[in-house]
Design brief:
alpha+beta, 46% helix, 11% strand, disordered N terminus
């Protein structure tokens, strides 16, 4: 099994559809279904130059949190970034700042690159000017459309929430999940000697795991060759059956709580599974999903309002398209 499983997310599907989705994972040591490119070098390209100080003045939004020569990243920019993160993720970054340091370094590199381009006059190029103008129009358009299509503050009402929940209750249902631990022994099918040795070792481990007062977690830590789960004593957490590879679903379903499976040969190796616990399928009550449901309903209402607003703008007047001018445009780009 692998711990590379996406978190469940809620999203609108069709008319409303709020569903819980999980990614699949692959086999190699796993029971679950499982930098930007550098510009091409050019002999005519100008050599990198140091950013010009006059084009890289620090933004007037507070002190710098990092500097690279004449360029800097203001503290306010990082504060705004941190505000967008869940509290748990902020605490994780606070404890281990390596990822945040990479973000800051990347931002410094971007500012240095912009400064270098400015120093070499790229902002004066016609294609750059047109691209900036188009990007600005898109930002203005989206911000304005968001403002004119916002649902009323009291939408949805409690009655509308309840109705949406009742109509989509089955989509909130969480399937039964199984907490499975494993011992994995690498033994590719093509290596007969490795397969024979792994089968012999697996038979011994199953015997030891079924002994009175056996410690499956200790055996997994010592012998499992799936590093991720071995570090947790073989524990892969609660997993819905669809996230297990097909060859293991039947094995897990056939186990009783606390039972250890016989060795299961897979293309990459042998799995020994232990069913630690089972959670029955359940449908969470409205109180548990009302925030996600309210957000989904508001997003759907805003999308509908935005579409109607755009259609209203076009339908408010007479649209005239000059066919001759269109033909001339095609001719101009031949």
């Amino acid at each position: 099994m692998s711990d590379k499983t996406m978190p469940r997310v809620l999203r609108v599907v069709g008319a409303l559809g709020v569903v819980l989705a999980a990614a699949a994972c692959g086999d190699k040591g796993s029971a679950q279904n499982d930098a930007p490119a550098k510009p091409a070098a050019s002999s005519s390209a100008p050599a990198p130059s140091k950013p010009a100080a006059q084009s890289t003045a620090a933004p007037a939004d507070g002190p710098a949190i990092a500097t690279l020569g004449a360029v800097s990243v203001p503290r306010s920019e990082i504060e705004n970034l941190l505000r967008t993160l869940p509290a748990a993720q902020r605490e994780q970054l606070k404890a281990d700042r390596s990822e945040l340091d990479r973000v800051i370094r990347a931002r410094l590199a971007e500012r240095a690159l912009v400064a270098e381009a400015n120093a070499q006059g790229w902002t004066e190029r016609e294609e750059i000017r047109l691209a900036v103008q188009a990007a600005q129009e898109q930002v203005v358009m989206r911000a304005y459309l968001d403002s004119v299509s916002q649902p009323a503050d009291d939408y949805p009402s409690e009655a509308e929430l309840q109705a949406a929940y009742d109509q989509n209750k089955d989509r909130f249902t969480q399937p039964a999940s199984y907490r499975v631990s494993q011992i994995y022994l690498a033994a590719p099918y093509g290596d007969a000697d490795a397969v024979a040795a792994a089968r012999k070792q697996a038979a011994d481990l199953v015997k030891r795991a079924n002994a009175p007062k056996a410690d499956f977690a200790a055996l997994a830590k010592e012998f499992s060759q799936d590093a991720n789960s071995a570090a947790r004593g073989g524990d892969n957490g609660f997993v819905p059956l669809p996230q297990l590879v097909p060859e293991l679903r039947g094995v897990v379903q056939g186990l009783k709580k606390g039972q250890v499976s016989a060795p299961v040969q897979m293309p990459g190796g042998i799995h020994i599974l232990k069913l630690v616990d089972v959670r029955d399928a359940r449908t969470p009550p409205l109180v548990e999903v009302q925030v996600q449901l309210r957000n989904a309903l508001r997003a759907q209402r805003q999308e509908q309002a935005a579409r109607a607003y755009l259609e209203g703008l076009v339908n408010a007047g007479t649209v005239s398209i000059d066919g001759k001018a269109v033909n001339e445009a095609f001719e101009a780009v031949k």
